[in-house]
Fold these 2 entries.
Entry 1:
Amino acid sequence: MVEKELYMRRALELAQLGRGNVSPNPMVGCVIVHNDTIIGEGYHQVCGQAHAEVNAIASVKDKSLLPESEMFVTLEPCSHHGKTPPCADLIVKHKLKKVYVCNLDPNPLVAGKGIQRLESNGIIVETGMLEEEGEDINARFFVYMRKQRPYIILKWAQTEDGFIARANYDSKWISNSMSRKQVHKWRAEEDAILVGTNTAYYDNPQLNVRSWSGPNPTRVVLDGNLRLPQEKLSLFDGDQATICYNFKESRQQDQLKLVKVSPNNWMEEMLADLREQKLQSLIVEGGAMLLKAFVEHKMWDEARIFIGKQYFGDGIPAPVLSGARLADERQVAGDRRLIYKNG
């Protein structure tokens, strides 16, 4: 079985090649093995295009080997017509001998139906191989489906003495250039990025991808009373999709969408609207009040913190996490980078 797991690990590696390009679909990888030799590989590359199983089967040069082959796929093959035909039907058509599945699909349109389709056509199915690894890779998709909201990543930089900004809201630059480059990589991998009113006003961030190659996230700003001077801020330059949640009005204006939410329930309404727009993940970049609100509501899945070498002595304190599990700690050119998981 250890040898079989190596094939699934390869499928998990392939799945991650789709990061940043397949949302709101999950990342999926697939490996086809005949007599302990890999004869086909594939992964889901772009949302709306061929799924991993389709690409893997297409890569097999001698299709006559498929009935005596095993498939290792990281997510239950789909059984419904979406933008592409059902993968389960394609597997049945080629009569693969056995299919190993890492994770079952929580999407109600699939949810066991893919497995049922395979088994009812005489294909042996084994589920749960490297299940935890698969859950981790597709955490965004699973949260999106199970909790009906985007996967939420809190991100901030803080000084050695625990401040996120000076008293005048100045925070440039706590982290170093390599840490900031990594932040741009993260932006390219997630669907949306959120800041509050003070951060938008004092930092005037662009919230795009500059020091990395990849798609820009949807920019999101919370401006309850619409007091930000839109004509002066980069957030409202029209260069990429931007959503402004506020307490006053809803309207669409080119790349800018204003969405009205209630003052007493803004977080839940905002997250529900983001999900409605099929935005599967959200980076919350600040400021301190906004981050603190997400922490207090326990409405986060992951926190990524850079600790720079500076000391402010005074200023705006960084949020304090409770019930967090340290998942990773490493050095980034002198900064400390901590990644916490919620629970």
Entry 2:
Amino acid sequence: MEPIGVLPLDKPAGMTSHDCVFRLRRLFQTKKVGHTGTLDPEVTGVLPICLGRATKLARFITDEGKTYAAEVTIGYATTTEDAHGETVHETPVISDSISDQMIDEVLEQLTGQIQQTPPYYSAVKVNGKKLYEYARKGIEVERPTRIVQIDALERTSEVTFEDGLCRFRIEIACGKGTYIRTLAVEIGERLGYAAHMSDLRRTSSGAMSEVDAVTLATLEACETIEERMQYVLPIEQVIQKWPRLTVDAETAARVLNGAKLPSIPVEFERFTVYNEEGVPLAIYRLDPEISMGRVEVMLQID
């Protein structure tokens, strides 16, 4: 039987998201495995992995909000905006020249909708090539600035000073496409210093948190696929908190045939359609070409 569901993986440092997918294909003996948004190799934490038919949900899970725990180091900037790049600019920090209040005020300023320019070492595409491909060749290109959503941004540690550096930890709740590395750099710039992100862990992705996450070591210690499946969340559990609409038997039959639906009063741009027995049938969205509320199917769940 094909493994089906979403595995909340606790990604280890030193592995790419694709490395994790490759390993899980072997552990679950299936080719149908996909991740839900790249985590940089040195970043740890929650990486939802879709198995079997659940791979159809990957793009929706990717769009959900995420939370992170990070460390900001002020005093020098790097090529990659994290601790693994080459130093490009140094601004030694005098002890106590940055106060708790100054930092907290900057964090408040960066809460809400903000503009971000993705780092050169990122997978954002410009003219069909990823930015890191240009960066590795030393080619400078214009990077697209975009709006991202920061729902919450708080300092979670004391501010420490040592050897011309200032360090503190933060927690972030944000929307899709936010670069925490770039956020750390922006925090430093607003304080008047060069900065980078020196540590990062994703603590949740959508409804899945690090409490739910399982390590590769735990999965590899299991002797059978059946044992590993105990850590896989069924599709119904993953989507249970998404906006939903329950329809009668006649409409449910049309949904199962992939039909567009006529005018339906819904508050959400995207929602899951259930039958009267509580079984999820499909994911629909408002038809962007029609203003009267007609909806079109995005994904058949069954």
